[in-house]
Amino acid sequence: MEALDFLEKEQTFTLPERYSILSEEEMRARIIEIKEAFGDRLFMPGHHYQKDEVIDFADARGDSLKLARICTAMDEAEFIVFCGVHFMAETADMLTSDHQKVILPDMRAGCSMADMADIDQTEQGWQTMQDTFGDTILPLTYVNSTAAIKSFVGKNGGATVTSSNAKKMLEWAFTQKERILFLPDQHLGRNTAFDLGLSLDEMAVWDPIGHRFEFEGEDLQDVKVILWKGHCSVHEKFNIKHIENLKKKDPEITVLVHPECTYDVVQASDMDGSTSFIIDTIENAPAGSKWAIGTEMNLVNRLIKENPDKEIVSLNPFLCPCLTMNRIDLPHLLWSLEMLEKGEVVNQIKVPEEIREHAVLALNRMLERS
Predict the structure, then answer these.
(1) What is the pLDDT of residues 171-202, one digit of tens each?
(2) Three-class SS of residue 33?
(3) How far apart are CA 355 and CA 360, in angstroms?
(4) Taking residues 67-91, what's their average pLDDT?
(5) Which CATH class is domain 235-314?
(6) ∠149-155-161 over CA atoms, to 5°?
(7) Which residue from 201, 359, 255 is spatially nearest to 367, judged by alpha carbons?
(8) Which helix (H) or strand (E) holds 296?
(9) Is the pLDDT of residue 1 over 60?
(10) For the chain, what are the domain ranges?
(11) Is 330 in contact with 53 (CB distance < 8 Å)?
(12) Distance between CA atoms of 149 and 157, rounded to whole angstroms?
């Protein structure tokens, strides 16, 4: 079941009105009280893109790979209240034990990129790819994908990847098959493949809507990487003009971007890397250094606040935070915790066993190599 279908069919709980009139101080005090009462029975992972008001309560901060690893080691936690988005909560459910319950405080916290790879479109496209290239393709999917897509990839011998390990996983994939299908973010796939030495002429984009290849080379059989036509709505908002304008104002500024940005932006930047790479680079940078960062705004603002000895700006100062990442707030977090306190589990994320089996294969193939 795709994330949007899940929201339409399964969301039966709505936020009671009283949470809209509680003060921030009241909500924070109650969250602290409930967390202390549950102790080790409750674990709250938080993705770096979450709001400060939410990340403040996270028991662990991380990117997708780090949080996936942490969740596998949290056997003592009966409840995992995941402060992130739907596909991350799905991953947590698949990697934890049956007795553990994964909860997403707001079911509207999804990912537009993940929803760009529909399982029906993927299976149809896969058949065309098989007809075109034969049994020469291994599928890889970014962890920013639905459990159904992860299951498809696992069933066909592939693995998941993160922005931290994409290069390593592509190298592994090419030891398995001649060609790679990379879902659902074309930009991460293109940037990673280029870093491995492949030319743009060796890459084609698969358009699932038009059900066709987009290819500018001479012979489609020369293609080594098939890129799904998907993208991050936040990272695609950075462009060359942003870099040119900043460099013109201050030639000493270092531009650091996430590899979900477009190929031309990554090539024009000084550095690119995963969320963890961006955080580590800034934390280890010398005092007084100047940085323009191309990634989600909540994280950029947090880096600015936590690194006052450096000059940090967003590559696009008019960029809004990720709308779906911003869905989880104090009212929804408190509500989900108070319901647990009453013995009622709301917004539980549970991946069906028929999807889980092969999706876990894809995840484990990544975790074994990371």
Answers:
(1) 999 999 999 999 999 999 999 999 999 999 99
(2) helix
(3) 9
(4) 89
(5) alpha beta
(6) 55
(7) 359
(8) none
(9) no
(10) 3-110+324-351, 114-228, 235-314
(11) yes
(12) 13
Regarding the domain delimited by 3-110+324-351, which CATH topology (the fold level of the hierarchy) does it fall under? Answer: Rossmann fold (3.40.50)
CA dist 268 to 206, 247, 255, 265, 275, Å?
A: 25, 11, 9, 5, 19
Which helix (H) or strand (E) segment holds residue 266: the answer is: helix 263-268
In angstroms, rounded to a whole number, what is the distance separating the alpha carbons of residues 312 and 305? 9
pLDDT reported for residue 65: 73
> Would strands 212-214 and 203-207 be described as parallel, antiparallel, or unpaired?
antiparallel
What is residue 10's predicted lDDT score, i.e. its pLDDT? 43
Helix (H) or strand (E) holding 194: helix 186-195
Q: What predicted TM-score, i.e. pTM, was given to this entire model?
A: 0.90
- Domain 114-228, CATH: 3.40.50.10800
CB burial of residue 7 (10 Å; 0-12, 13-18, 19+): middle
Reference 68, options 147, 2, 6, 1; nearest CA is 147
Query: How far separated are the first and last CA of the chain, in Å rounded?
Result: 28
Q: Average of pLDDT values for 340-362? A: 95
